[in-house]
Specification:
single chain, 153 residues, mainly alpha, 8 helices
């Protein structure tokens, strides 16, 4: 039966899924199914109908995708946001995690401590050191930008 459905669908995994689903449905209706007298034909019919239904759903999804126009313009990341992310990447992971959870996810110090498994005092120290390191990184980025602007002039 899988071979028959494979010939119909062209996809062996999909054919297996359809046959399995047909057998599951047969099992659920086994009282009626066994009295029918033609179990193989019933399972094959169910499997073929499942394959046709799946193909129709896939075709409908494809039509919806084709009809949906792409967005006109997707703006790039904000330069300030990109600079912040770049500066955060240069910080130690523990400080970066504390800063992101506290300032970007709006978690309290206690919540950050709970999520990271660090004591609240350690989280406070990481936040303090991380803010100072982040300020240095961002100031260095600003100084580098100014030098590039001066060179361009």
């Amino acid at each position: 039966m899988t071979g028959q459905l494979y010939s119909f669908t062209g996809d062996h995994a999909e054919a297996q899924d359809m046959v399995q689903e047909a057998f599951v449905r047969a099992w659920d209706r086994r009282a009626d199914f066994l009295a029918d007298g033609a179990p193989e034909a019933w399972i094959r019919t169910v499997a073929m109908r499942l394959a046709v239904s799946r193909r129709r759903r896939a075709r409908r999804r494809l039509e919806v995708v084709r009809r949906t126009p792409p967005p006109e313009h997707t703006p790039g990341p904000d330069p300030d946001r990109a600079a912040l992310v770049a500066a955060l990447r240069r910080l130690p992971e523990a400080q970066r995690m504390a800063l992101v959870l506290h300032h970007l996810c709006d978690l309290s110090v206690e919540q950050v401590a709970s999520e990271t498994g660090a004591p609240p005092g350690t989280v406070k120290a990481r936040l303090s050191r991380g803010r100072a390191a982040l300020a240095r990184e961002l100031a260095a980025d600003d100084g580098e930008k100014e030098r590039e602007d001066d060179r361009a002039r």
